[in-house]
Design a protein that fits this description.
There is one protein chain. The chain is built from three helices and nine strands, in the order βαβαβββαββββ. The strands form two sheets. Strands 4-3-2-5-6-7 form a six-stranded mixed β-sheet, with helices on both faces. The chain starts with a strand and ends with a strand. The mean pLDDT is 94. It binds inosinic acid (IMP) and magnesium ion (MG). The site of inosinic acid has 16 residues, from strand 5 and helix 3.
Amino acid sequence: MIDQLIGSKEIQSKVVEIGRQIEQDYVGKDLLMVCVLKGAIFFYADLIRCISLPFVLDFIVVSSRDGEISGDIQIIKGLKGNLTDKHILIIEDIIDTGKTLRHIIDDFSTRSPASIKTCCLLDKPSRREVDIEPDYVGFEVEDKFLVGYGLDLNENHRNLPYIGVISA
Ligand code: IMP
Ligand code: MG
């Protein structure tokens, strides 16, 4: 059984709200919006369609051990090309311990971007192990394992239109 925690209408209005903030903050900047696959796929697709600024989109794939979260982190597919003077905005589904985002930021930082910011649909602050706060956050959530709207449990449930909690 999956209990709905955040409904699809609630998600969509939050996405519009975040899109408006991003639009205001990046006027006139050379923006690169990076989707962290696979989890951020729907959030990213919905968010970028709320932003009418010119920007470049790209995707990265970060490893995670099957069925686990926060294992040894590795960028399997990174960004090609020059990041010099680009304003990078990393779009992630959820920030948990913070290790994934930390790893990605440290990797991009070596390539002289103008700025690096992060945008997470969900934030589990109680689980944080590294000192990192996302710049844009959709919803703060409790320490429960969530699925849907891109989030998976062993690759299942990503296609749910809402975010839910697995119950017994
Ligand atoms: P972190 O490195 O611990 O911050 O973990 C972030 C990654 O763990 C996210 O990108 C997700 O892929 C995964 N993750 C963390 N919490 C959940 C959850 O509740 N459901 C599904 N995936 C999660
Ligand atoms: Mg993820």
